[in-house]
Design brief:
Helices cover about 25% and strands about 35% of the residues. It is α+β, with helices and mostly antiparallel strands and about 230 residues long.
């Protein structure tokens, strides 16, 4: 794991060549969440640490290199994963909680049930991800003549961050027998952006929207509750 000061966003060439530059991470500044869309839960009374973190992200996003600047805030925020976990709360079900939403920045707290899988998907926005509990295993994909193809993989552990370019396609797995949680930050309005996902069995491209995401998380929570 690299501890370099400011990892740059990953270009497609770097991704194809072999992987994602990671950095270790702690906490910063915030604002009250804007009214969220139907598929996501609003943040219920952010504590002072989480509010400072969000406000720091908003301020960093106003600079000339917003992704790199926001990544530095995220690095500090998860450098001590327990502090972020305390700030946003222990995950008990799959879901996404909106910490901030605007036309230029979306900050989500994403939680994954044990052994949850998310099919390949794109964002069409730059993304910074920081893990504060558990683990996320990423498979990186790119478009090929007939369908997408896997080109790399990277495991993100507690305290790790990653910077993804706007054209990235990735799938995510929580391989652990406990919940995983991470802060996902996007350089735009995540919920107002029409995206794609790829069928887990056929890898056929399909449209992705809030209703699809909501149903996926509902199914994962049902699966988790049914487990003996």
């Amino acid at each position: 794991m690299s501890n370099s000061d400011t990892p740059a966003p990953i270009s497609r060439r770097r991704m194809l060549a072999g992987g994602i530059a990671l950095t270790g991470l702690a906490l910063s500044r915030s604002a009250r969440a804007e009214p969220p869309p139907a598929q996501a839960k609003p943040a219920a009374g952010l504590g002072p640490h989480a509010e400072r973190f969000v406000q720091d992200c908003i301020s960093a996003n106003q600079g000339s290199e917003p992704q790199a600047a926001v990544l530095e805030v995220l690095k500090r925020a998860v450098r001590t994963p327990r502090a972020m976990l305390t700030a946003v709360g222990e995950p008990h079900e799959a879901g996404i909680t909106v910490l901030h939403r605007s036309k230029t920045l979306t900050i989500l707290n994403a939680a994954w049930t044990p052994q949850m899988n998310l099919m390949p998907h794109n964002h069409l926005l730059w993304a910074n991800i920081g893990i504060y509990t558990g683990r996320e295993d990423n498979i990186l994909w790119h478009r090929a003549p007939k369908r997408i193809e896997a080109v790399g993989a990277k495991a993100l552990f507690e305290g790790d961050v990653v910077s993804l370019p706007s054209d990235v396609i990735h799938s995510v797995t929580n391989p652990l027998l406990r919940f995983a949680g991470g802060i996902h930050i996007y350089g735009g309005d995540f919920f107002a952006t029409t995206r794609s996902q790829w069928n887990a069995e056929t890898l056929a491209e399909e449209p992705s929207d809030g209703a699809v995401i909501r149903k996926m998380f509902e199914r994962e929570n049902e699966r988790f509750r049914r487990k003996p």
